[in-house]
Every structure is written in C-alpha cells, then in structure tokens.
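Continuing the series of single-chain predictions for the mutant panel. This is the parent chain; the variants come on the following pages.
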Amino acid sequence: MNKNLKRSIYTGIAALSFVAIAGTANATSASAKSYAKVTSNKALTTAATSRNVNVNGTNALYTKAGTLKGAKTVATKNTLANLADSTSSKKNWRAYRVATTNRGSVYYKIVSYDGTYRGWIYGGKSTTAFAGGVKSYNTTTDPAAASSTSSSASSYSTDSAQATQTTALTAAQKAATYKIATPGTANDGTEVTYTYPAWTQYKQGRVITDSTPYKDATFKVTDETTRTREGDLWVKIEATDSANSKANGWIKYSGLKTVSTTPTTTFDADTSVKIAYRDTSTGKTLSTTNTWTTSATGTKEGGSAASYTNAKGLTIGKYIYSEGAPSGYKIDTTDSKDLASDGSNVTVTPALSSAKFGSTLTVDVTPVASQTKVKFDVAGTTGTANSSLSSSDFLYGFPALTASAQEDALPAGGATNGTFTVSDYFGANGKFTKALNSTSSSNSVQTIYRNSDIWDINGNEVTTTGLTGFFGQIDSTKSTSTATAHYFYVYNPTKTLAANASTLANGSSVTLVFDRYTTNTTPNSLNSDLNANTDYVSK
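Parent structure:
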C-alpha cells in the first residue's frame, strides 16, 4: 500500500478516535452535573416582628432554594430591586422559614405582605443574620422632631397642615383630645383603627371595621410613628371613656380632628332644647348630650317646642333619630321596635309633645353587646382533650373572611341581656359554617381529594371524596424527600356545638373546633383578589 495513503488512513482514524473520546468525556461531564441538597428546613421561631425583611435585588426569588434541581424563578433580581424601593407598605416582607444546603448556603422563605410574591431567596452563609438577597427591615420609623414645639393642636386641622403632617406631634397636639374625623368603614387608614399601622406587620389588620358607632367617642394619643415606605404619620389612640375602648388602636393622624376645649355655641334657652341620655341598666345619666336649636325667631323659654324645626328641617323627634344613640348604646322605644325616623316611638322624659324651650329631654338607652368573636381549637386524639390553635399553626394564619361575610355570618350583638342560638350560625348548615368553607368569602380555604395521601390525627389513612379546610405547617413525620406533607385543619360543626352552650349571650366568644389531618397535597396560594381579614377572631 502507498505509504502516504496509509499515513492518511491512520491520521483519520486517530482524529475520529479523539472526537469520540472528547464527546464521551463531555457527555460524562454533563450527566454528572450535581445539584445542591437541603440538609435543614425549618420554621423560624424568633418573634414575628423581628422577621420583617426587605429584598435588595442582588438575588432572585425562587420556588425552592435556587441551587436545587427544578427551582423556578418567582421574581427576577430586577423585579426585586424595584420592589425594594416601593412606596407601599403592602410590599413589606416577612421571613418565616430557613433552609440550609449541603454547600453551606442559607435560603429564607419570604412572602410579601400583600401575598403577591412568595418563595425562597439566598440569605448568605449563616442563619444568625439575614444576608445575601434579603436584609432586616424596620417597617415603621420614629417621626422627625416637630418643627414647632409651641403650635396649638387646633392649628393642625384635618383640612390643612394635619392632613400632610409627617413630623412628630407637638406638646400641644399630644395633649389634645380627638375624634375620628369621618366615621365610616373605609379601609384607608383614616376611618377605622388597626392593631398596627396598616401593612406594617404581617396579617395584622383592623381593630374595628366600622367606626360609625364611635362617632361621639373622644380619644387621646398615646404613641406615634411613621410608616417607613410611605412616610405618613400614624398615632395610637385610646378612648377617654372605657365604654369605647374597643376602638382603641392605630389610625392616620390625618384621620382625626381635634375637639374644641371651649363650647362652640352657648345654649340659648329661648331657642334650644337639650337632649340627654339615661343608661337604663344603671339609671345614670350619661355625659353625652346634644342640643337641638330651632331656626324660627321669636320663641321664648318655656314655650312649646314640639312643632318647631331646626335649620335642617328636623323636629326634635327627627333630630333624636338622626343623631342616634351614644357609642355602645341603643335607643329604647315604646313598642320595642326600631326607632322610627320621626322619633315618634322613642322612650323619652318628658314626652316629645311636652318639650319646651330651655328644657332637657332625657332619652332612655340600653347598652348593646358587640359582634361575636371566635377562638380556634383542634380536636385531640382519641381520649384526649381539645387544645388551642394559634395563627402560626396555619400556613397562612387564621382563616381570613371578607368583611361582608363576617357581618352576615356572625351574631351581630344587640342587647347585653339577649342571646343567640349557636347552631344557627355554627352548625352544619349555619351561616358561619357556609361562609368559612366558601371560596367566595374565605381566601385560604381549599378542598383536597384522595388522589394524594391523607391521614387523620391518629395516623390512620383516610378514604374520602373530599375534605374542605385550611393548610397548616409542615408535618415532618409524614414528609419525604419527594413529597412535603402539611397539616390540614377541617372545621367540625358537631364538635363545635359540643364545645359551646346551645345558647350564648350576645357578644360572647365562640370556640371553633377543627379536626386535624395530614396530606401531601400541594397548598394553593392565597386568593389575593379577595379583600379578607381576621377581625372576627378574638384577640
């Protein structure tokens, strides 16, 4: 054979061999790619307020630790960088779990306060402090010193400087007495009170959902702060009358108005009638009074006022109706029905027909109970007692309900000596039971089926066509490397009725009893489109 030909053949074979070997080496390298593994995954147990954090955009947010196989991006670094500078406290974050990988990396599971984002983010190499893509964050900040320490409280009216004030209160403002400027139900920080300034602590909502019953209540300021992201001034208020203490809480300073320390008008006995209120349970006259004044001229003290009207065209009876009862009370009527719009059935001394200019009419009022609240229990294993459930036992905190569902599905209160039948609300077909288990009113309720494993509290497998309830924290005894198991709480009307008296006084707290299961079904995310809260839970 020609030597040149033989040399060409050998050279070709060698080249092919090199390509084959290189290809094999590359294939081996690719198939050998390794992923990190989680060596620890546990809930954070430090005080919840110490786990407020902020992202910084240096790391993305993932469905699981970013170096684990199958990790998917929830939010990019660019997205998080923008969220870090958000001017809305809804974009505050809470860390609630921590995981460590076999490479020594630490990841934190975090959730934005509005529930829009939830996932794992790199947190450095130590579990002793937040680092990496997340850092500790103060959701509130002490306000800057007041620009003037001598300003009077009245100089900061709700339609001028007070509406935009962000500095600390002056001494005069701290000493002032306030009312809620616009009583109502708006959840905007100005009409109702909150357990903390809105969106500065995770899943901490309103103290009251309607401040209308407290339209006459007066308050003192006991604390102040600003929300870090918005920079707006919030104050903690406390009612001057303990009967109105249920409204105590945080509110925007711009939502208050000062109460004048001097009368705005002088009672004119020739044109006015004073309206006082008597608590029928104690026989004592309340400090709250109102004054009706006629728009007519030429009237004199002692003359009949029954047929006259005020500047709004209201007779004394209609005026009593329009003013309503003082906070915490209901006006008594002669026929036990609701007060008529003309006030004709009001229980008042002397009678409306006998009202005279310069006199005082005393209206009878009865204390009323507030709306019913609930507490949570979990049924014990066979032969053991129930035990209490806390917000942290649930994956998303206590089940949140819409305000309308709470109003419709819970006993509204009423006379303090009145009662309600527990089964009407909390039985199998009760109003509350239906609202709690409905996705249209409850933002974390979910139904699980037998296509995944389900165990009861005693560890027995359960056969079911479906269980409706609420996810709890991870059950490490049933979790595996391929399937995470969670506790699952199902409301039990029968056990609830057994745990409470058949009838309860208005305003009483009701103990709800849940059965606990475990499932490896994947929890759904919160329904963030539903405006829900936990105001109905007894604090």
